[in-house]
Amino acid sequence: MKNNSCLHDVVIVGAGMAGLLLAVLLSRQQYNVLLVESRQPNEDLLKDNDLPMRVSALNANIVAYLEQLGIWPQMVSHAKAPLRQLLVWDDAGGGKI
Predict the structure, then answer these.
(1) For residues 32 and 29, what is the distance between their CA atoms, to the nearest angstrom?
(2) N or C, which end of the chain has less CB nearby within 10 Å?
(3) How confident is the model at residue 34, as a pLDDT?
(4) Residue 28 pLDDT more than 70?
């Protein structure tokens, strides 16, 4: 419920993919959102298109939803590649998907 007596309706901790998406969705619904992130943004990453070696796999339903929101074109302009094979591991061993 939107509350006019508070400075913020919602506080989101973490500006990762999920936190940013939630902030966008709530702000589009006229909620006053405060997004809190412990790290400073590294603007140099996007200047030279030298993105970090982090992989995020999104299924077709999420991509369709991001397209509907108008967010997907901005995301895909930075980096996109189909996932053909995924190797996973932890301290107990490894595997292949």
Answers:
(1) 9
(2) N
(3) 96
(4) yes
Q: Which of 93, 94, 75, 76 is nearest to 85 (CA)?
A: 94
Which is more confidently placed, 73 or 54?
73
Q: Which of 36, 31, 37 is nearest to 7 (CA)?
A: 31
Identity of the amino acid at 94: G
Rounded to whole angstroms, how far apart are CA atoms 97 and 88? 8
Q: Residue type at 27?
A: S
Backbone Cα Rg of the chain: 17
Look at the block and give the residue holding tokens 């419920």.
1
How far is CA 20 from each of CA 3, 10, 61, rounded to the nearest angstrom?
21, 13, 18
Triad 58, 64, 70: Cα angle to 5°:
105
Contact by Cβ (8 Å): 49, 78: yes
